[in-house]
Design goal:
mainly alpha, 69% helix
Amino acid sequence: MHTLRHFASRLPFAALALPLMMLATSCSRFDANGSLSTWGYVLLALDLFAMFDVFRQPWTIGKKLLWAAVIFFFPFIGLIIYFMFAGRGKSNTGVV
């Protein structure tokens, strides 16, 4: 029951993210000449940030690879799923 309440507390954020997700997925990441658009650069930067964050977590290698695959294969939706449901703790940065 505790986990259900935990996910239910994130529903308002998901409801606000849905229109943003629909808008972002309707926009192309590439310009007419094939180069990345401004949105493409922003998405690339956020995905790289999430990938670095995944590998800084004190998780098993299997969990890290699973989250990295989700972010890699679903660049925008995987990013949202990661930041909403990863259950991240403090990253292991070596600072005491």
